[in-house]
Amino acid sequence: MTIFDPIRPRPERLPTPSFADAMLLDVARRVQLSPTKHDEAQQHFEALCSYVDRPGSPLQDKVIACYPGGSFATGTAIASSVSKDQHDVDVVMELDVPTNSDPERILDLLFEAINAEPGSRYHGRVTRNSRCVTVEYDDGVRVDLMPISRLTAAPEKAGHLFHFKQQPLESYHKPVNPWGFADHFNAQTAYDPVFAAIFESRALADGRTVAKADVDPLPDRVPLSEKAARVVALQLIKRNRDVRFRNRSKRKPPSVVLAALALEVAPVGAGLLEEVVSISRHIARRLQEHSAQNLCIDVRNPAYIPDVFTDRWPGALSDQNEYVRDLEYLVRQLVRLRTEHISLTETNTILDDLFGETAAKYAIKEHMERSRVAMEKGAMRFGPSGRVHAGVTAAAVATNCTPARASTNMGGEWFLD
Amino acid sequence: MVPGLIPIETQIAAMEQRWPDFALVQRIGRRAVWEGTLDPVCKRYRVRIGYEVPLAIENFSILNVQPRIQVLSPRLELHPEYEEGPIPHVYVNRAEQSLPYLCLFDPFNGEWTPSDLLAETTVPWAARYLYFYEGWLLTGKWSGGGRHPTQEELDGTQRPKAIAAV
């Protein structure tokens, strides 16, 4: 059995963010998988794959390969629940079974292989879904194992997934190539040195930088701070989607659809907020174009055209129109954040509304903490209108701004005669 | 003029050069008042700064001669339930309680003297105050540092809590 980890690019060093970008960067940092969580998730799925392949398992010696799929493979994974620090990991498990195997049978076998007998390692933590088997861990990680059988005469690692649902009865095979898409996505989002610098500088802004070794203990794994703007923008769009769909009991636009559409638009290279706006506008426009023709959008895997990403969403025109409205609202609010003279309280309200309370609170807290440290270090700078720049941002704008020496705010009940 | 005391003309010139958006709205002898806008985060605040250069013969204390900074609009909010509340780091204005004077430096430790330019101290300090004030409004906590005067400092003057209006 081989466990693959798609190779991701390693970007370079970079510059500094605007206030709005800085806030979005902190929101993004909060919704991402921490390096520790990433490592734990990886260990979980590697152990799972070995477990399925173990002697005595109904799928003994049937596991050909295991590798991350979906957001985990493209580096766009976010927490499924930020406040609970809950993460879902999509894993593709290639099985040595005929491609025309009965979907129900394959999913049942995988379920039995993992759930096993009472008292065993994963017993009671396993759920069978229509295309995967989910294992839940105490640490908040949920691993979705999707079995596929490899297709011959197809691109590398293309295969059939097995779909089975009891109510209403659905049983079919679907051609997929998650590996190919991850490879394609990562190749398209390689090297964004401008953005990479922004994340880097954000981490360095307050002198509280976590030692590199703590952040990235594995030399072959790209740290969060070196992601491309498009990747982080996509994470924010997904987070916004999750917030909007919290109280809607319907299927949400799949991450892979958003990722594929995001690849169609060229990176703007003008900061994170502009990247989110650009991608959101593009996706909204693409959906609107189809709605105008009374069509639901058809998005395919660019690495394997038979792989239809939109097979389960949108189910109706109303679904895609609803998401267009969500994206338009996201853009409007972000433009407000960028251009209007709003207070920190209003900024928090916008971030809370768009990305949830926990992430918004984190961004504000980080902002204030960085400011406090910058003030104590005498690193604050003041722009022509009194705009305060703290930390690395201050250094970057130093030529246009003046410093001021430290002073102490005095407290107490002081009266004026 | 006492050596080290910066004349009001110099203060006015420095303000005009460094903070052109601050307009001189009053000038009477050694006294000047400016009004202008600061936007430390994004939101804009209308601010008034009043200052009178002390006379050479005056036996002044920094507490009394310090510049007076008020936030004209939007008025500072009262939050008695917050840390440092109801408004952090201000001198209460008995005449107009909604227009307190910002307490931007430690008058007991020479952090500011009449030898300092307002343009280089008072205005950026006011911007910094408003910056942390916005954080305080949102979180209920004051992140901008500061301290309370000691009893010795308070006992050091007959009216320790009083500063003169300009």
Provide an overview of this structure:
The complex is a heterodimer of chains A (417) and B (166). In chain A, 44% of the residues lie in helices and 16% in strands. Chain A is α+β, with helices and mostly antiparallel strands. In chain A, strands 1, 2, 3, 4, 5, 6, 7, 8 and 9 form a nine-stranded mixed beta sheet that branches. In chain A, strands 13-12-14 form a three-stranded antiparallel beta sheet. In chain A, strands 10-11 form a two-stranded antiparallel ribbon. In chain A, strand 12 (381-382) and strand 13 (388-389) form a beta hairpin. In chain A, helix 10 (272-292) packs antiparallel against helix 11 (317-339). The N and C termini of chain A lie far apart (83 Å). Chain B is α+β, with helices and mostly antiparallel strands and 166 residues long. Chain B contains four helices and six strands; from the N terminus they run H-E-E-E-H-E-E-E-H-H. A four-stranded antiparallel beta sheet of chain B has the order 1-2-3-4. The model of chain B is unreliable at 158-166 (pLDDT under 50). Classes of the chains: A alpha+beta (417), B alpha+beta (166). Chains A and B meet through helix 12, helix 13, strand 14 and strand 15 of A and strand 5 and helix 3 of B.
Short overview:
The complex is a heterodimer of chains A (417) and B (166). Chain A has 417 residues and is of the alpha+beta class.
